[in-house]
């Protein structure tokens, strides 16, 4: 009850200053549902630029970070740096980080722990592959990925949003049906109730991600355990505003 709808736009490795200006102007024009929280996940190199042009009501997220504040980690950025340029969120454990860059559950957990300790809010992503779904392992995978996060999150659940993103639905145009998504969200909440606490299960927001569009957002958003979206492709387009407003 009372979970504020939260919509994230994950731009991935897309956008240049021209396109960013267009996206931000579109968000400013809105109008955006004041009851929805909006966070845009931008490429690291544009974090400061986006922060300088976006209204304060819109959160800005990095799409990854390292698990230490500074040091000899060529090419990486730290939560301290993300905060220093004014952003306050980071997306961690995205399936593209897990599959393309080989990030395992324990590395994701270490990153989550350090990001939270550093005062960032975290969108932590979980989700099964098509092979895992077809083998009937959806819950096993999602519970395993979430279990790894429990010690990392500790008492910091208020600063965490979970994003359930079935890998087979990402960038494929194959959205999970509202029932498929609702089922996983509900069983994850149930699992959290036993393995974290009933209060955490009740209050944590769980986003759905994977081919969300203005067309399917309303039906997905109406499901009782879907508390928002993590949007890839459509977050670069004007329809993102309609997705933010899906529960209005
Ligand atoms: O990976 C996603 C968001 O993090 C989803 O991407 P698409 O919305 O492009 O399927």
Automatic annotation (TrEMBL):
<dbReference type="GO" id="GO:0004807">
    <property type="term" value="F:triose-phosphate isomerase activity"/>
</dbReference>
<dbReference type="InterPro" id="IPR020861">
    <property type="entry name" value="Triosephosphate_isomerase_AS"/>
</dbReference>
<comment type="similarity">
    <text>Belongs to the triosephosphate isomerase family.</text>
</comment>
<comment type="subunit">
    <text>Homodimer.</text>
</comment>
<dbReference type="GO" id="GO:0006096">
    <property type="term" value="P:glycolytic process"/>
</dbReference>
<dbReference type="GO" id="GO:0005829">
    <property type="term" value="C:cytosol"/>
</dbReference>
<protein>
    <recommendedName>
        <fullName>Triosephosphate isomerase</fullName>
        <ecNumber>5.3.1.1</ecNumber>
    </recommendedName>
</protein>
<keyword id="KW-0324">Glycolysis</keyword>
<dbReference type="InterPro" id="IPR013785">
    <property type="entry name" value="Aldolase_TIM"/>
</dbReference>
<dbReference type="GO" id="GO:0046166">
    <property type="term" value="P:glyceraldehyde-3-phosphate biosynthetic process"/>
</dbReference>
<keyword id="KW-0413">Isomerase</keyword>
<dbReference type="Pfam" id="PF00121">
    <property type="entry name" value="TIM"/>
</dbReference>
<comment type="pathway">
    <text>Carbohydrate biosynthesis; gluconeogenesis.</text>
</comment>
<dbReference type="InterPro" id="IPR022896">
    <property type="entry name" value="TrioseP_Isoase_bac/euk"/>
</dbReference>
<dbReference type="GO" id="GO:0006094">
    <property type="term" value="P:gluconeogenesis"/>
</dbReference>
<dbReference type="InterPro" id="IPR035990">
    <property type="entry name" value="TIM_sf"/>
</dbReference>
<keyword id="KW-0312">Gluconeogenesis</keyword>
<dbReference type="InterPro" id="IPR000652">
    <property type="entry name" value="Triosephosphate_isomerase"/>
</dbReference>
<dbReference type="GO" id="GO:0019563">
    <property type="term" value="P:glycerol catabolic process"/>
</dbReference>
<comment type="pathway">
    <text>Carbohydrate degradation; glycolysis; D-glyceraldehyde 3-phosphate from glycerone phosphate: step 1/1.</text>
</comment>
């Amino acid at each position: 009850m009372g979970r504020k709808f939260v919509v994230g736009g994950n731009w991935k490795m897309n956008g240049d200053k021209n396109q960013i200006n267009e996206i931000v102007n579109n968000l400013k024009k809105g109008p955006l549902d004041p009851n929805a929280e909006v966070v845009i996940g931008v490429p690291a190199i544009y974090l400061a630029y986006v922060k300088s042009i976006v209204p304060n009501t819109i959160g800005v997220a990095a799409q990854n970070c390292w698990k230490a504040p500074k040091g000899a980690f060529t090419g990486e950025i730290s939560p301290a740096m993300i905060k220093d340029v004014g952003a306050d969120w980071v997306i961690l454990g995205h399936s593209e980080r897990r599959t393309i860059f080989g990030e395992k559950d324990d590395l994701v957990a270490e990153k989550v722990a350090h990001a939270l300790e550093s005062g960032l809010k975290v969108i932590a992503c979980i989700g099964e592959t098509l092979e895992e779904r077809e083998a009937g392992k959806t819950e096993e995978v999602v519970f395993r990925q979430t279990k790894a996060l429990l010690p990392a999150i500790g008492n910091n659940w208020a600063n965490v949003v979970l994003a359930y993103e079935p890998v087979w639905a990402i960038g494929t145009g194959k959205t999970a049906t509202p029932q498929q998504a609702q089922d996983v969200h509900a069983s994850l909440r149930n699992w959290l109730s036993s393995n974290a606490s009933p209060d955490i299960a009740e209050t944590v927001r769980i986003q759905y991600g994977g081919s969300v569009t203005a067309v399917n957002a309303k039906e997905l958003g109406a499901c009782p355990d879907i508390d928002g979206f993590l949007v890839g492709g459509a977050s670069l387009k004007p329809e993102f505003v309609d997705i933010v407003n899906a529960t209005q």
